[in-house]
Design brief:
The protein is of the alpha/beta class and about 375 residues long. The protein is about 30% helix and about 25% strand. The protein is globular, with a radius of gyration of 21 Å.
């Protein structure tokens, strides 16, 4: 099977998938940290951007609009939306009453926990589903969604581009082990993807290609009548992702906040270990995501480090107490979540307005 098919089973299968079997995988008791785990301040900052964007959406509507959609993709148990809604309730109670929350999450267990997580703001929950709403108008947030989508892995050999596959091999002991092997491309879309970017991989370079991310952004663009998309993830422009810096590929696995290490046979990478019990992730090619969005009529309004995005939103934020100051430091400091995570902001039918999140500095490091 392709690496993409393996990841799909290991992460999302209803019975054995890593994400499907738990309501929450991040945090101190989980396998990795996200910005949401730092505390409610991340949601509070995003709330400021949502408020501004909701106003811009409403001002672009000629007829009276009675509601604005807030959609969170890869919502998990709803913690981020809960933080955002509570902040909006304090900052703009009128908008809070007009918001319709849609939580998109493939894990049935996580969906079952959402209403309880939302608690006092559960009255805004309009839908909870594995799929995006068929049509919406407002703001779509995708925080660390694209990096967890199944990817194909390719390797350049002297006789051309090859794809990496996962197979089960019987050992001399009689046990079975998952290993990788190489074969022809499973789809011509992989070579076409690199050709569109003008990427020429050098011999022995490995790379991941996320066709699912392209399909997702196209679908989101078509379903959004008017509004904004905020995609936050770790990744790079294509010229950096497909370069000597990442010539070994970026596919990796985490468990208990540790990336698997140690020496292994070349055909037995760490991400094959304990399928269903470990996170598997790859860096995002933001260039291709943006291009696919543009092809569906979306406009790029900003692409910047999370540090600069949040600094634009943090004006006058009360950081008096120690806990809040420490949370802000974790979110903003270069070398951590602040610089490893990029923010891509897209708009549809809203013009090219200056945004709070882009008001400090638009810079990618």
């Amino acid at each position: 099977m392709t690496v993409a098919a393996f990841m799909d089973l290991a992460l999302y299968d209803a019975d054995v998938g890593y994400y499907a079997r738990a309501a929450q995988r991040s945090g101190r008791a989980g396998d990795f940290f996200t910005s949401v785990d730092v505390g409610p301040v991340f949601g509070e900052l995003l709330a400021r951007q949502v408020i501004e964007m909701a106003g811009l959406v409403e001002s672009a509507v000629i007829s009276q609009q009675s509601s604005v959609d807030l959609v969170e993709a890869a919502a998990g148990n709803g913690r981020l939306s809960a933080d955002i809604l509570r902040a909006i309730g304090r900052l703009n109670s009128s908008l809070y009453q007009r918001l319709r929350l849609h939580l998109v999450e493939v894990s049935a267990e996580a969906r079952a926990a959402q209403r309880g997580t939302l608690g006092d703001v559960a009255d805004r929950l309009t839908s909870s589903s594995a799929d995006l709403p068929d049509a919406f108008e407002g703001v779509l947030i995708a925080n660390e969604l694209l990096d967890a989508m199944p990817v194909h892995q390719v390797v350049m050999r002297r006789d051309g581009l090859r794809e990496v596959y996962v197979v089960a091999r019987r050992l001399e002991t009689g046990n079975w082990r998952l290993v990788t092997t190489e074969g022809p491309l499973s789809t011509p879309d992989l070579a076409a993807y690199l050709d569109r970017l003008g990427v020429a991989l050098e011999p022995d370079w490995r790379a991941e290609i996320n066709l699912r991310a392209i399909d997702w952004i196209r679908s989101a663009a078509r379903k959004m009548r008017r509004g904004f998309i905020i995609a936050i993830d770790y990744g790079h422009p294509a010229r950096e992702l497909y370069s000597p810096t990442h010539s070994a590929g970026t596919l990796t696995t985490f468990a208990a906040h540790t990336a698997a290490g140690g020496e292994r046979p070349a055909n037995a990478p760490a991400w094959l270990e304990d399928p269903g019990d470990r996170d598997i992730t790859a860096h995002v090619d933001f260039t291709s995501v943006e291009a696919a969005a543009a092809g569906e009529g979306l406009t790029q309004l900003g692409f910047l480090d999370q540090t600069y995005f949040l600094l634009g939103l943090a004006t006058d934020l009360d950081g008096a107490d120690l806990k809040r100051r420490l949370a802000l430091k974790t979110l903003l400091l270069p070398g951590g979540l602040g610089s490893s995570h990029k923010v891509l902001i897209l708009g549809k039918g809203v013009g090219s307005p200056p945004l709070l999140g882009c008001s400090y500095r638009v810079r990618v490091t």
